[in-house]
Amino acid sequence: xxxxxxxxxxxxxxxxxxxxxxxxxxxxxxxxxxxxxxxxxxxxxxxxxxxxxxxxxxxxxxxxxxxxxxxxxxxxxxxxxxxxxxxxxxxxxxxxxxxxxxxxxxxxxxxxxxxxxxxxxxxxxxxxxxxxxxxxxxxxxxxxxxxxxxxxxxxxxxxxxxxxxxxxxxxxxxxxxxxxxxxxxxxxxxxxxxxxxxxxxxxxxxxxxxxxxxxxxxxxxxxxxxxxxxxxxxxxxxxxxxxxxxxxxxxxxxxxxxxxxxxxxxxxxxxxxxxxxxxxxxxxxxxxxxxxxxxxxxxxxxxxxxxxxxxxxxxxxxxxxxxxxxxxxxxxxxxxxxxxxxxxxxxxxxxxxxxxxxxxxxxxxxxxxxxxxxxxxxxxxxxxxxxxxxxxxxxxxxxxxxxxxxxxxxxxxxxxxxxxxxxxxxxxxxxxxxxxxxxxxxxxxxxxxxxxxxxxxxxxxxxxxxxxxxxxxxxxxxxxxxxxxxxxxxxxxxxxxxxxxxxxxxxxxxxxxxxxxxxxxxxxxxxxxxxxxxxxxxxxxxxxxxxxxxxxxxxxxxxxxxxxxxxxxxxxxxxxxxxxxxxxxxxxxxxxxxxxxxxxxxxxxxxxxxxxxxx
Length: 615
Hints:
The chain is of the alpha/beta class and 615 residues long. Helices cover 38% and strands 22% of the residues. Helix 7 links the parallel strand 2 and strand 3 (129-134). Helix 16 crosses helix 17 (385-398) and helix 20 (478-488) packs antiparallel against helix 23 (576-585).
């Protein structure tokens, strides 16, 4: 039985963000909720069926509106404690990979953006809070096999997801399944639930088996692309063909373009509304010319080595400004090429727009203008650390500094910043790119996501060279971040000398200004530093906020200059309690105090602040 959407749930927050991004209206959300209740179905199932948003829309909102990062699982080693928290049957059936747990918050990776709606039920089952990160579906399947050692889910488990259609068996290759490319009857492919042994057998056909044979033999409906042009070795005609393919993909609202090799042919495929659609096919011998045309369109630099490659560029197609990412991998069958199309983000927000106080903005601006050492931004996953990171880089560039940034996912393109996107498939790790930046004439070097002890050592080394280093690190706050860096293997004395300024942050949802009223709250009395004059205000729900009571989100921050007394504690590898005492003695305004100011102003409810701070 499906219940009313809890606005504090992950599903509620995603729907609110979709509305804020203009992808859904509050009326549509209300109608979807009503339909889900009347049918006894999940909101995800009804949303997918409605076609209002695509999988790529949800991914874009998760990344750009809610700050959910996209991670490379090849660079992550999940914590054993996190893996033990989620039973193998649950992880495999729901297609989630637990990564780490911080203070009761479990971070899990999902591959299909619609799977974000299953996390509320998982949180209830496990009794913990859950936050998502995005990863490649194939990488999640491989990691599940590696860490859980079994990919067999019972039919009951596979059908038991409360928020997504039953997942396909993990032995299937989802990107080359025939049902993704075409259906015998008109209309989008519908999910098939294997409820009989025959159905299970059909769903687990090995790659290259019957389902792919059917895909190869299927005619293309209403062909709109003529790949025969590739037979003529004319670079201009190929360029026109590539432009036509991109224009068609944008018109069809495709999120990806695939070139998939199979036997003696290759397929041109679009991913539309989460499903793959076969657009055209041609002899495999002609694929090279089209692949070269795609590389020229995306401006991929030539490489003498025939290996994996990744490139990104900004293009304008029709009236759309897009960020285009091209990934190419050589396989035994031929070259596999995937182009991802995303709306181009214009420019990052300033620190004040993110929610920092005037004093905090001044301190950070002064740091990037004149400072040196390590500026460490600490926050749990999906708490807006990347937004702060880009705001700092943009201000440093505007102040005339030369800036070099190593990023795993480029969210904003800043023209004055040398941004390097790390290719997960490359043998060159992120640390090598970071080290290369140190050898150039660079005032500010930055890395969005410290992930290894080598990253820490390079950041400390760069700070010792007199450079300003901006780095993000997943942690509950500044004190927790410093303590985790020490646990990761950072040398205490070197880290103490490198640290100059720390930033901790969380995201809180703002009360809807149209329906906010004074209401009693048991959580108010439990907030640290609360005084009798503070009253609780909360949104009651109205059509303007989709009856959630929330409209938008803002950051709460703590900023800590590393004074000599605090450095001495770090050099002694002090406990988290000792570091917290030193930070408090130095006058740091903690996250709770920053949030309480929002509660006092009536912008944030006491219950929302208590939820975010896990009080």
